[in-house]
Every structure is written in C-alpha cells, then in structure tokens.
Design brief:
The chain is α+β, with helices and mostly antiparallel strands and about 600 residues long. It folds into three domains: about 300 residues, Alkaline Phosphatase, subunit A; about 60 residues, Arylsulfatase, C-terminal domain (2-Layer Sandwich); about 130 residues, Sandwich (Jelly Rolls). About 20% of the residues lie in helices and about 25% in strands. Strands 1, 2, 4, 5, 8, 9, 10, 11 and 12 form a nine-stranded mixed sheet that branches. A hairpin with a 2-residue loop joins strand 14 and strand 15. It is elongated, with a radius of gyration of 27 Å. The N and C termini lie far apart (about 115 Å). The N terminus is likely disordered.
C-alpha cells in the first residue's frame, strides 16, 4: 500500500514539475508601443537632442529595423492591426476613433468606419490566452469603449485602457469632468497627487511581472507618451536648454516626455533581469505612427522626422516609418541592424510564431521571426496603405503601395499620383519619368483595395472651397492649392508652410474659391524668393483675366512679402479658380508662396 502511495506521489510531483518546466520554457512577450514617436527620435536612430539610453541599450542588445512601418499614419488603425494582424482597410477601421467629421472645406466625404475593434476579430491576446498565457494590458487602448475594451478582447486585466485617444491627465489625479461627472482612467482611480502617468504605467508593469514571473505572460504596454498634450515633469524639461525652433529637434517638453518613456522602458527591462526571466522574454518596442511634425495644440510641433518627409497624418515616410526594436535573447544578434521591410500587422504574426502558437488564416501579417534569427531574405516585397480621411495634421486622403524600393502615392481628391524611390527619399517625384511603373503600381493598389474591401470616399455636395470672409476678402492659403506637374508641392512643416520646390517651370497651381459678395479684388500674393534667385515671371489668372508679376528677391524663400499686382473683377457669386503659372524661370527656383489674398475693394 505504501509503495503504491509513493508511486502516486512521484507521479503527481513529476506532473507538477513537468507543468512548471513547460510553463517556464514558454517564451514571454513584452510589447511596448509608443504614441506618436518619430523614426528619428531615438539616439540609436541618430538623434543628438533626445536622451534615450535605455532604448539605445535595447537596440544594442537586439535587432534594430530601419524600415519598420506603422500600418496607418494615425493611431487607432495601427493598434487594430497590431491586435489582429490585418490591414486597417480590411477591418474598416481606417482613422483614429471616433475620427474627424466631414466639413464644408473638404472635397470628399469619409466612409462610415467601425467605431470599435469588432469582437468577432481574433486578437493577439485571445490567441496567447488560449495558448496558456497570462495577458495584461497597461496603457492606451483607443479601440472601443464599454463592451469593447481590453478585457473583452482577450486581456485578463486592464490598467488605463478605454475609448479615449489622449489621457484624461498626465499627472494624478488621472481624471476629468465629463458632462458634469468626474471620470477616471480605469485602474488608476487611486494615485498619489502629482504622480506622472508614464511612471505609473512602469510601476504597474513591474507589479505584473512580479506577479507572473513563474507563468508564461504577454504584457501589452501601449504608453500614452509622447502624444499631446505636451506635459512633462518640470525637472526633466529643465535639462533641455533652449526654445522650440521650427525645423529641428528642439522641443524640451517633448524631449522630457520621451526621457520619461525611456526610463519606463528601462524599469521594465531591469525588472525582467532582476527576476531572472529576461533570457526567456521577447521584448518589442515600436510606435503607432510617425512623429507629430506640424502644429497641433500648445508647444507643438513635437518633433521633426528628417531625413523623412512630413509626419503624423501624412502618407509620406515621416508619417509611416517608425522605430522598431526587437530583443529575443539567444536569437537576435546583439547590435544587429536590418533594412527588411515589415509593418505593424507583421508583429502580430511574429509574436504568435515565436510563441509556438498557430497563426490564424485570413490575416495580412507575415512572421519575420526568420529575420530575428538572422535571415536576410525579405519578409514581403510589397506593403499597402489606405487612408480615406483628412488628417488633423493636414494630410490628404490617399492610398499607397510600396513595392521593393518603389513607392506610389495616389491622392483620392484628384487622382494625382507620385512615385518615389524610398532609398533616395521623397524629394524627386519620378511619376513623369516612369509612367509605365505608375500605371502598373496603381493597378496593383486598386486590385488590393478590392481584395480587402476598402471603403472609398464620396463627393461632398456641400463643399465650399476658400469662402469669402465677412469683410469681403478671400484668403487662399498654400495648403488649399492643387498642384500640377512633378516637383511643386505644399510643404506643411511650420518653418515652411508654403508652396515650394518650384524648380520646374512647367509646374503650376490652382486655387478654388467661393464668392458671395461680387466686386473688384486686388490680387496680393505673399511671395518669397532666395537671395539672388529673383526675376522669374509668373502669371495669375481667373478665367481670361491675367495679371503678371516679376518675382522679387526677398533674401530667403521663407521670407514672404505681400505684393499687390493688380485687380480682377468677379461680377457674380459662385465658385472660381485662380491659376498660378510661371512664364519664365530665372534661376534655380521660381518662388515660394504662403498665401494669396483677394482684397475686395469698396463699392
């Protein structure tokens, strides 16, 4: 009897030990997501202004991607892609939630998008939970409110995550008054006065790691930082001297926010090491879209994404390219760098693959675990984006296909197409030189849209371009110009805010505007021109009324001078077009234009 009891005991012990060993051998996962962090903002990506020693260390100990992409130039769609492995277009979730509403100054109407990640979608947390993982969510959710939060999408618990895109407060108490009712961020109802949110997320992450050190776990840590509003600890802001200077990384508040984010990452990695589980934990760090490079609220822009063009809300590289760091102990080679092209939805497949779970069918993401193991083979040869929305940052609706090093952008307002070699940057539009490539990639983009069921925009019947002000004047900002040709473009960054790159004399611009008070108008371009670059002749026309101007040297292309060049008569209310076309180009560039004002004359 005794020997049989001992045998049962040994079997039971073996089962317990075997179960514990199996759990211990499973790969843990920590996925850290920054909000609005630009590609060039970390020291390991070349920043000389920001201080990011912990993230730089993560890069030094793992693999750094130079061509990692967000699945969308704004937040919620990328977060949905991370959770599902699907293109945002397939999910019909293509803008931040609830999204920017339709307006009279927008030519197209947005499609009706899902206002939450559908519960029918299988999430990364659900897959890993099914595989025996403890799943924790700490941070920003922004994929749906009540009934659609993290705990309805596979997470065992949630701290901070709700429907909102910005935190109720970066400093405790983490609450705000909403319709006469005080609401708090989930799980953060009790917090020491003045505590900083980024620090609190790190503390909650450390608690999670302590509690689950002996279990396989998936920790999703999507920080609110470095999203607006620009709020940081004063003692850190003081470490960054100087004032915000447009055109370079110089925002001390943003730098302090990023330093806190870096310190939070350092606390998580240090805790993994202290618990002696770092050697079996996959750590991934990335961002949901490019850095905010335009003015959007106090103390902005946050950053600049040079050498990449534009930023958050734009389909150029500055809006789509993001930092991506991966450390898989025993797998990734320390200090390695890859230019393999991957995107947010590929992270979904990669984590599942690395954890030994089954990648679900019907997703768009592709595992890049082979790249983490040292493979030089491409994961994919093409990527697609679909953004049928007007961005708060000024970006226009459009679609993108990247095939190899070629990138085609198609704008939905007018069908304009731009072609770039991303290895050479996005200053040279190759569309005119390679029309056959443009047509081939445009056909590929259209086929992809049909395959994923992408929702398209429709004409806005209430579109009112550049309306007349009460004083009778009509202002035509550079941002409202429609450009024709190869190089001319609107440059949205605040140190420019201009129609620029007017190096091709055959390029021209069109402004649409609306007259409600007919009469005679003085035409006043606000023109800039670099030293020694004046002398070009430019025609301004409305119908058959034509005025000519000889461009003046203003000492700098962004030094704008208002010039009254003559008058035109607009006898009837209605919609008009002003065309701006060079007749001669004197030097390297024609001019820059910030705006054109049509000044109504008395009577």
């Amino acid at each position: 009897m005794l020997s049989r009891s001992l045998a049962y005991l040994f079997v039971a012990l073996a089962t317990v030990i075997g179960t514990f060993t199996q759990a211990a051998e499973k790969l843990n996962v920590v996925l850290i997501l920054a909000d609005d962090l630009g590609w060039a903002d970390l020291g390991c990506y070349g920043s000389k202004y920001h201080r990011t020693p912990n993230l730089d260390r993560l890069a030094a100990e793992g693999l750094r991607f130079t061509e990692g992409y967000a699945s969308c130039p704004v937040c919620s769609p990328t977060r949905a892609a991370l959770m599902t492995g699907k293109y945002p277009a397939r999910l019909h979730l293509t803008d931040w939630l609830p999204g920017r509403g339709d307006r009279a100054d927008q030519r197209l109407l947005r499609p009706h998008i899902n206002q939450q990640l559908p519960l029918a979608e299988v999430t990364l947390a659900e897959i890993l939970k099914e595989a025996g993982y403890v799943t924790g969510h700490i941070g920003k959710w922004h994929l749906g409110g009540e009934g659609f939060g993290p705990q309805q999408q596979g997470f065992d618990f949630n701290i901070g995550g709700d429907h909102t895109g910005t935190p109720l407060s970066y400093f405790a108490p983490y609450q705000a008054n909403r319709g006469g009712k005080v609401v708090a961020m989930p799980g953060l109802e009790d917090a020491p006065q003045g505590e900083y949110l980024t620090d609190r997320y790190a503390l909650e992450a450390e608690k999670f790691l302590d509690a689950n050190r002996d279990k396989p776990f998936f920790l999703y840590l999507p920080h609110n930082a470095v999203h607006t509003p620009m709020k940081a600890k004063e003692e850190l802001v003081a470490k960054y001297e100087g004032k915000l200077t447009f055109g370079k990384q110089s925002n001390p508040i943003y730098a302090a926010m990023l330093q806190s984010l870096d310190e939070a990452v350092g606390k998580v990695t240090a805790k993994l090491e202290a618990l002696k589980i770092a050697d079996r934990t996959l750590v991934i760090f990335t961002s949901d879209n490019g850095g905010l490079a335009t003015i959007e609220g106090p103390n902005t822009p946050a950053t600049i994404n040079s050498p990449h063009r534009e930023g958050k809300g734009w389909l150029y590289e500055g809006g789509l390219r993001v930092p991506l760091l991966v450390k898989w102990p025993g797998v990734t080679q320390a200090g390695s760098v890859t230019d393999t092209m991957v995107a947010s939805h590929d992270i979904f497949a990669t984590i599942i693959d690395a954890c030994g779970a089954k990648i679900p069918a019907g997703i768009d993401g592709k595992s890049f675990s082979a790249v983490l193991k040292g493979s030089k083979d491409p994961v994919r040869n093409e990527l697609f984006w679909h953004y049928p929305h007007y961005a708060n940052q000024g970006g226009k609706p459009g679609g993108v296909v990247r095939e190899g090093n070629l990138k085609l952008i198609e704008f939905y307002e007018n069908g304009r197409r731009e072609l770039f070699d991303v290895k050479q940057g996005e200053n040279s539009n190759l569309a005119a030189a390679k029309p056959e490539v443009v047509e081939r990639l445009a056909a590929k983009l259209e086929a992809w849209r049909k395959e994923v069921g992408a929702q398209m925009m429709t004409p806005n019947p209430n579109f009112v371009p550049n309306p007349q002000a009460k004083d009778g004047n009509i202002t035509l900002p550079a941002s409202t110009a429609e450009v024709f040709g190869v190089m001319l473009r609107y440059e949205p960054l605040p140190h420019k805010n201009t129609l620029g790159y007017w190096v091709n004399p055959s390029d021209w611009a069109k402004f649409e505007f609306t007259v409600t008070q007919p009469g005679t108008f003085i035409v006043e371009p606000h023109q800039g021109c670099g030293s020694g670059q004046g002398g070009s002749v430019v025609a301004f026309s409305v119908g058959d009324q034509v005025l000519e101007m000889t461009v003046e040297d203003t000492g700098h292309f962004q030094n704008f001078k208002p010039r009254e060049i003559g008058s035109i008569k607009l006898d009837k209310p209605g919609r008009y077009e002003l065309h701006v076309k060079p007749k001669t180009k004197a030097k390297a560039a024609v001019m820059d234009v910030r705006q054109i004002v049509l000044k109504k004359q008395p009577g």
